Amino acid sequence: MIRKISKIGVLLLTLTFAMSCATRVEHRAHLTKEIEAVKSEFAPDKRVAVFAVEAEKTGKAYVLKGESNLPDAVQTLKNKLSASNIAYVDNIQMLPASSLGDKTIGLVTISVANLRSRPAHSAELATQATLGTPVTVLKKDNSWTLIQTPDKYLAWVDSGGIEDINQAEFDRWKAAKKIIYTTITGSSYSEPSTTSQVVSDVVAGGIFELLSEDENFYKVVYPDKRVAYISKTEAELYASWLSRTNPSNENLVATSKRLMGLPYLWGGTSPKGVDCSGFTKTIFFLNGLILPRDASQQIHTGDLIDDSQNFENLQPGDLLFFGRKATETSPERVIHVGMWIGNNEFIHSAGRVKINSVDKNAPNFDAYNLNRYLRTKRVVNSDVGEVIDLTETNVFEAAAQ
C-alpha cells in the first residue's frame, strides 16, 4: 500500500534535508587552494614527505589541523594566510611527535626490517631496511613506528625491528668502528666458531658496530646490545670497504649477477627478495650509492642516454625504464626498471632476477618490455637526482677528523 505524505510531512522532510545540506557545507574543505599550493611546492611526493594538513572553519577563523614533518612548509602556509589577512589557529602536529621525547632516531636491529604502508602486518610491503640502517623516528602507533629511511622513504615498521636512541647515542654509534657484511646471506654466531649457536641471519649490506677482532672473526654488537661473531671471510671493515667502493661498469654487473635467481618480492630491497627497483637499489647500495626507492623516483636520477631504442650508446650499469608513455589524456607511468649489462642484454627482477635481451633474434628476447621501453639513464658520475654517495655523505660513520 502506498501511503500519502501530508503537507506537514513534506515540510519536515524539506527542513531536514536543508539542515543536512547546511551541515555538509559547514564541514566542507577550506583553504584548499592555499594548502595545495604549499603541498605542491614542499611535498609533491607523499612517499618522502608528510604534509597532511586541512582547515576547518570556526566562527571567523580557521583551525589548521593534521601533521607534517616539514617545518618550512608549515611556516610558509602560515605566512601566506597572514599575508592574506586570514585568521587561523595552528593545531598542526609536527613530527617527530613530542611524545617521543629525545628518542627520535632508530637503528635497524634485525637482518631485514619489513617496512609497510600502514601500521599492520597485513599492510602492503612498501620497502625494506637492512641491519644497521639509521632512520628518523616520527611517531608511534601501538607496536608500530613511522620512520623515514636515509633515502627519505616513509613507512611503518614493527617496533621490534628497530632500536630507538637519542642524538648522543647516535653520535657515539656513528663514531664507533664498524664492519659491513659483504656475503649475500649468512649468519652471526654466539662464539668465534661457525659451529656455535646462530645469533641471527645476516644479509649483504648489514652494518655492525665492531668490538674487537682476532685472526678469523669480528666480534660485533647489535644495536639492541646482542653480541655476536662474524667470519672475516664474509665481512669487511666498513672504512676499508668504503675506501675501495667503485660503482664501475664491471662492479655493478658483477654484483647484479651475484643476485641471479633471487625471487621477486613486491616491496623487497634486500637479498631476501627484490622487486624491480629494489633490485637496482640493492646493486647500487652494495657499490656505495643509495638510489631513491621506486622506479618512478629512480627515473629522475642520472643523465639521459636514450629514449628511442637506440641502444648503441648504453654502458653496463645504465638503468632502463619501462612503462606507459604519456598521451594527451594521461601522464607517463613508470612501471619497471632494469640494468644494462652489455651484449644487448639487461638484468632485472621479474618473477625472479634474470637476464633478457632487446635483440629480436636472441633466445632470451623480451618483446613485452621492449614494447613498453621509455628511456635509459646513467646514474654513475651524474649529479642529477637524489642519489646518496656514501663516500660523500656519512650515513653510517662519523666524518673523518
Description:
By secondary structure, the chain is α+β, with helices and mostly antiparallel strands. The protein folds into four domains: 29-94, Histidine-containing Protein, Chain: A (2-Layer Sandwich), CATH 3.30.1340; 98-173, SH3 type barrels, CATH 2.30.30.40; 176-244, Roll (SH3 type barrels); 249-389, endopeptidase fold (from Nostoc punctiforme). Helices cover 22% and strands 35% of the residues. It is built from nine helices and 28 strands. The chain has helices at residues 7-26, 32-42, 71-83, 167-175, 238-244, 249-258, 276-285, 295-298, 367-371; strands at 51-58, 61-68, 88-90, 93-94, 105-108, 112-116, 125-130, 134-141, 144-148, 154-158, 162-165, 178-181, 185-189, 198-203, 207-213, 217-221, 227-231, 235-237, 269-270, 273-274, 289-290, 303-306, 319-324, 333-342, 345-350, 352-357, 373-378, 388-389. The radius of gyration is 26 Å and the shape is globular. It starts with 6 loop residues before the first helix and ends in a 12-residue tail after the last strand.
Gist?
The protein has 401 residues and is of the alpha+beta class.
